[in-house]
Amino acid sequence: MKMAKKLVIIDTDCGIDDAQALMMALAAPNIQILGVTCVFGNTCVQNVCQNVLRVLSVCEREGIPVFRGCAGPLVGASSPPTDHFGTDGLGDVIKDRDPQWEEKSQREHAVDAMIRLVSENQKQVSLVALGPLTNLAVAVKLDPCFPKKLKDLYIMGGNMEGKGNLTLNAEFNFAMDPESAYIVLEEFLCPTYLASWEYACRNKLTWEFFEELINQDAPAARFMKTITSKCWAYSKEAMVSKRDVYFGSGFVSYDAYAMAACIDGAVVTESIQCPVRVELQGLMSRGMLTLDRTNALKKSHSVFVLTKCDTAKFSRLLLESLRQPSMKPKVEC
Ligand SMILES: [Ca+2]
């Protein structure tokens, strides 16, 4: 009997690690992507749409709908964009931008699409959130039953040890829109799995593995090699980053950790189940995730904060993700 596929919506601010995560989902035989919803973050939302369309084109999967979503956080102005993955999110190496990207994107807003797709497939859709959580926060305000209709939610974001990569104490995705992160972790009562910054960094891979990964003989691997070629975040020789100071040198593809948990739950070997809350005040800690392991907040809802990853399984998913597009079986005549 053919196994039913997991239905997935991917919400992304498509930087290089999002591209990697998206390719992982495209390569997974048990995953059906209903749509990709775009949000600002690594770059502006217009670039994000173009980046997603580019990844789908490299993998020859242009049939998957791409929706444009929120262009800034719920409160206040957007933080100035960082150049972590280049100003365009994909390493500033792509010269031929697609002038037809707007026609290739759907007209429906990402938040409307999310609500519609989940309402049409209640309790069957996994939502994988790889950027600031603005689209998700707006979705629950438009449709308070939205989280109840989800099967589960996987988030790359937040931190569990108070270590920050954007600010002293806050991780990038949460720090870019703390109010949205707060709303999502208070109001999404579906099973929720958090791949924090420290989870990704503590389960880093070697630079030797990175070389093996991008030097595979396939269009997706060649694309990944190109977009990482001038990006300091993918250079082991680059100046020592905060990540290296805290966790030692290594290759970390952040968003791929959340995606891998959705594709194969066995990739996660340990997690902490506890209530969490996002700090909204604080000169240094705005956007920080706090773990309430003593139930001081008296919340009824707990999330799974991932702590240990089967890096052998995870590495295999990464390797497979760059062997795309898959060769179509030849028809014998
Ligand atoms: Ca991302």
UniProtKB/TrEMBL annotation:
A Pfam family annotated for this UniProt entry: IU_nuc_hydro
Keywords per UniProt: Hydrolase
GO molecular function: hydrolase activity, hydrolyzing N-glycosyl compounds
Domain Inosine/uridine-preferring nucleoside hydrolase: 8-315
Keyword Cytoplasm: no
Highest taxon listed in the record's lineage: Eukaryota
Zinc-finger recorded as keyword: no
Xref: InterPro entries: Inosine/uridine_hydrolase_dom (IPR001910), IUN_hydrolase (IPR052775), Ribo_hydro-like (IPR036452)
Protein family (similarity comment): Belongs to the IUNH family.
Protein name per its UniProtKB record: Inosine-uridine preferring nucleoside hydrolase isoform X1
